[in-house]
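Hi support team,

I'm opening this ticket because the web form for multi-chain structure prediction keeps timing out on my end. I have pasted the exact lines I submitted so you can reproduce it. The total is 760 residues across two entries, so I didn't expect it to be a heavy job. Is there a limit I'm missing, or should I split the entries? Thanks in advance, R.K.
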Amino acid sequence: MRVMAQIAMVMNLDKCIGCHTCSVTCKQTWTNRTGVEYAWFNNVETKPGVGYPRRYEDQEQWKGGWMLDKRGRLVLRSGGRVKRLLSLFSNPDLPSLEDYYEPVTYDYDNLISAPASPDMPVARPRSVLTGRPTAITWGANWEDGLGGAPENAGADPNLSGEWAQKVKFEFEQTFLFHLPRLCEHCLNPACVSACPSGAMYKRVEDGIVLVDQDKCRGWRMCVTACPYKKVYVNHATGKAEKCTFCFPRIEAGQPTVCSETCVGRLRYLGLLLYDADRVGEAAATPDEKDLLDAQRGVFLDPHDPEVVAAARESGIPEDWLTAARRSPVYDLVMRYKVALPLHPEYRTLPMVWYVPPLSPVLDAVDAAGGDQDDPDHVFAAVTRLRIPLEYLAELFTAGDTDVVGGVLMKLTALRSYMRERTLGEPGDDTALKAVGLTRGEAEDLHRLLAVAKYEDRYVVPAAHKEDAAALSAMEDRCPVETSGDPEPRKIMLGIPTLRRDTTAGGRP
Amino acid sequence: MTAAPLSPAAAPASGTDLLLWVAVPYICLAVFAVGHVWRYRQDQFGWTSRTTQLLEHRWLRWGSPLFHLGAFMVIGGHVVGLAVPGSWTEAVGITEHMYHTTAVWAGSVAGIAMVTGLGMLCARRLLTRQIRLRTDRSDKVLFPLLSAAVLLGITATFAHNVFGAGYDYRSTVSVWFRGLFVLQPHPEAIAGAPLLFRLHALTAFLLFAAWPFTRLVHVWSAPIGYLARPYLVYRRRATTPATAAADSRRAA
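Hello R.K., no limit was hit. The queue was backed up. Here is the completed structure from your submission:
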């Protein structure tokens, strides 16, 4: 047993209102620079929808993640090592900028410098890449709230089974929810495995996956290998960049920017201990539907004295073990088992998990004339309602509807029990028992999911004092410096750098 | 056009010849070596292939593999032609005619692939606005210089060895080139070579001088080690090279 600690995230999708505050604050912090205008380390997409970049979930096309070859061995879908080196000159599976969108700015200057005229001056959109006026035809979140669903959403790669024929995009019959996405900081990261330079790495201490900007040579194999398409090419520096899990904040014991600013308070951060020796075996589980359990099997119980002893042996500090025992992520993923990974079938063992949304089911109960508060109605709906359930299963359980259905029933039972409790009734726990929760557990889970206090949501142990020298050495060095400066500028994290002229050819 | 047979008693080299064929090559090689050391120590962040595939991929898809694979063959051909003396190849039973025929055929194929590829890469750089705007000063030196060296080389081959009477550069240009590296320069050996060969040699040395300051440095980062490395890379925060570098900067 080789115990490692991972800082992981869970998102409670029922609470996501699609306000994009996480994306905007993330962009302001990390990608408001030349070369990554198109990149969103955190983005929120509407599901069903094609996502960002377009149809990234279609791995037949984009070749992301891992797969099992004919002999059952775990291999990168984009091919072996030799094939990867041969495609250095031109990567056949790299999304082009059109697959993301063409970033634009506006002629704001025209609003104040236009000569007097009977018409109002307008700020026309201008491509950041060419500096020329352009028509905006796509964006990182073009289909927000199912915008253009009849035309676009049918291309969602998750709408693949026979059941997908029944999905309706007419206003009255459709369903939608928001899916915030960031780098999954996987246990078995395909991007790291595909990097020819060895510039990408997973940190031993906290499992954060990073790109060493000094070692990246711009071979861009990571972009293809990541099935979530969460590694981006900076077209100004020619190097790869990705979500850093806000490691300077995490090291200081603070939540990531996306979590801190989430107005729905739906994000949870905490430690998970896992057995690094079992990662490869779990990722190579033959049946895709067993991957969820296989990944849970890699996680270790921080209350188990044997695990604690092994963790101490591998140098995990005592306060980290305490934090692991308090981890809300451990509770949601392992104790209550209400959180599920996004696309486990990519075999990267992702570490940002989701509590699936109940809302599409409840909407359907309403539409069918049922009572949202009656668990019997909802349970019946959960099993009868093929479409959202199968869609959610496609996202979170490699198509296994039983697992998603089980989680939704658990959430329904919890909701109905806690409603009774809040209304001053003793509460009927038959439904709770049916989903395997005790009254005490229900109170705990309710506190975690619904009350969601700051100190319960974020249990982030600070990095250790013995590493203080290393930390302060990182301080004067932004990991994603801008190129083109005569000498590397010292950029203090947290202080916005000078706003550069974002039109490519200087001011038009 | 054939060169006069070379003899040790050839006329002493003129001042111009000394400058062009001894001083300039040595200066260029010195800049090449020192430049690389300086760049590697100072500019790891800028050390990249500077890919533009994200912005344009249709031309790159053909142009880049053609150029790179052609370049590998061309470089291989140059190593054989310049570094291996004719007497060695004849000692293993390869006659001058056999060598020449192979060199002309393989060289032509490689050269045409490289020129076509480079042409496509230059074209996309010029014609695609978003790439043209991201072309920096080093590219503005590199692309013309590389094109000049490649075009002069292929023109020399075609003019003299494909359509011409044949020119045995191995007894002149190669002698001069090897002499530079054993510190016994023979400027007179190349001084009599045809103009196209001399210009090609000169642009090639200028390219060497420019090399460390351009994106060509990515050549030295060809990721061969990837073939043998474990897939997953773990690193400790405390021992990252970035930290070590920052520490050493601080100490300095």
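A quick check on our side: Residues 1-9, 239-252 of chain B have pLDDT under 50 and may be disordered. Let us know if the file doesn't open in your viewer.
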